[in-house]
Amino acid sequence: MNKEFLKALLKRIISSLITLFLLISLLFILIRLSPGDPTQKFLSAEFSPELIKKVTADFKLDQPLYEQYINFVVNIFKGDLGISYNYRMPVLSVVWQFLSFTLLFASLSFLIQIIISFYLSIKSIRKKGTAFDKVVSKLSLIVYATPAFVLGVFLIYLFSVQLNLFPSSGSKSLDFDSFSIAGKIGDYFWHLTLPIITLSSAGIAMFYKYLRDNLDETYQQPFILNLRASGYDEKVILKKHVLPNAIRPLISVAGIELGILLGGALITEIIFGLPGMGRLMLNSIFERDYPLVIGCALTAGLIIIISNFIADLIKMKLDKRMIKGLMN
Amino acid sequence: MKFQPKIWHLLLFFWITIIIFRFDLLIELVVLWARYFLLFISDFKSAMQLLDFSLIDAILSVKLFIIIPTILFLFRKNNLWLKSSLNFSSLTLVLLLLAFIFAPIITNENPEFQKDLKMTKLLAPLSSVKVLHLNKKENAQKSSLEKFINYKNKIIKPSYNEDIIFVNNVEVKSDHIIYSQKNLQKEINISDVQIKNGIPFVTSKIFILGTDEFGRDIFTRLIYGARISLLVGIGAVVVSLFMGLSFGFIAGFKGGFIDTIFSRLTDLFLAFPIIYFIVLILALFGNSLLSVIIVLGLSGWMGLFKIVKSEVLAEKNKDYILTAGMLGQTNRKILTKEILPVIFVPIVVNIVFQFSNVILAESALSYLGLGTGNSYPSWGAMIESGQRYIMKAWWMISFPGLILIATLFSANDFGKRLNETINPGIQK
Fold first, then answer.
1. Which end of chain A is more exposed for a tag (fewer CB within 10 A), N or C?
2. What topology does CATH give the domain B221-426?
3. Smallest CA–CA distance from B283 into chain A, residue
4. ipTM of model
């Protein structure tokens, strides 16, 4: 930890905060621009004008726009996102309930993507040019082009309808509460198998493509030839010299991939009827539950900002040149 | 020498196939075109009133169809595009383009056509039903305008048709006809039915890819769905291109404060999970064809912006740009004449990938029920309804799904090939 690193870190934090601030502003603008009056949900035409005025004043909608904006920002930084119309609970606690599922779901899928794509790409680079390599490369292109909702429905058709191996929707069995703890965990993963395959496949294909190309490129560099000539073991070359070089560009891809993952999670949750953030967001939009919509969008944006930040941190740790890049 | 199929071979093949299978329709369309032309001269006002999208569509596509052989003959030797060789991805993309332009000629059905739900609901691919033709209730004396409208309705199929009945079986009794629809028996007077050679005129109709839950032909809907996908794809790409070019040029050329603002904005859009953003805007402001195009365009300009900005930054201090500025060229001219040709290549590659992203996003939105609305068929919406009938009708979901996968794969593959052709450095 030197001074330069801290300075770069500080700069990165500030730029993240600015992005967050802009995100909040954008949300405010969108909500204010959208047609419809938030008080309509609570008012009927039979109410007296005085009452309508009073409700509007209670919502602070009679204040000028910039004061509404300041209120909005201050409340968000206080952690007060309002109360959901549907759930009759603070937005933050509703979002938290659903967020935990999506976080588990997405991170599990992320882990699986990394592991499988690593395994496949290393294996196919070792057998470069063989049938295995060619088949997996072609297959990855096709899988990458398959939308999550087509793959998910296909899996449901194959494994739920025809073979009756996995459940087609939900995250728990009906008699979930009667299971032992091990049974509960097993039941959970039994329900999550198909969704995780659906969510992970595109990411696996993408990581595989990147990693294979990177590995290939690294293997063709002169220093590898030098190492080989010096008599190093292939495994040592791969572990100590090729992988660290090949992984680096992947980390920034991983930061972006997390955003894709959240989007994919939205669709996967819809297909399989899972209780996650994406479904919450979509339902709240269809039910015009604005506080909840803002809460969901903000949380999703926050996750992306944080994950990009972490990806940059890891890159800084791996590559000292990154610090200079951030400084400029 | 080995025969290497080229794109113009495919176009020729398409042209001949359509001529063989749709000869009647083509003739009728040409006649319709001529009749409309006559009406246009004789009765301009009512001709303009009759002008609607389907008529323009039909006439334009038949015009283009007639031009095809001329184009092929003139350009097949010189045009780089026409003489490039055919592979899976270019095959798919060209077929999609043909479906986009010639949809009314290829199918001759209305994508929303539904009739006798009991008979046509959820039919398997290649299944056929019998069609009983009724006598048309037409008035004897007609003006030329009414004649034209009748003729138009005969050729450009509306979404309803009172003159046919889908049946299982037809039996002739002395003065009436008994026809059966599944287990239902119905009677009809023999004078209401078209008679040919002494027996009722019955044809059979084949549904190549089956029907959906409303008895609509899936093949037709797929062809027309290609239109929506391509339209949204092209529209959104144009919007992103416009935004990315102008923002990137301004940010790169002016630099300083404006650059900071635009760069922050890009970070913001990249930080927002794009699908949340799209869903949010569509739900707040309502979804229609135009809003889907604009929102998808809005959500995809960041990559182009970054490319354009970095290229402009790299180019702007080079001597030739400085010279152009000193010679008194306006900024707009410098952009279009000097910088645009330089950054053309990376932009085109980016656009192709953007196009496939947009098609995916559009079908995902339709799947979520936030697409271009119900007035036009869309692949995503077809997949969504197919999911609900997955137990009974596998064909409802597999065909749109396969076409979507093939389209996305081809667009990605095309982009990759383009990239490799233009930048040989990245070739492995």
1. C
2. MetI-like fold (1.10.3720)
3. A285
4. 0.82
